[in-house]
Amino acid sequence: MGEKLSVNPWLEIWTQPRETIAAIVRFNPKYLFFLLSGIYGWTLLLQFAQNFSFADAFSLIEILIGTLVFSVAAGAFGITVISALLHWTGKWIGGVASFSHVQAAVTWSNVPNVVNLAIWLVLAFVFASLIVTGK
Question: How many whole angstroms separate alpha carbon 72 and alpha carbon 87?
Answer without folding.
Answer: 22
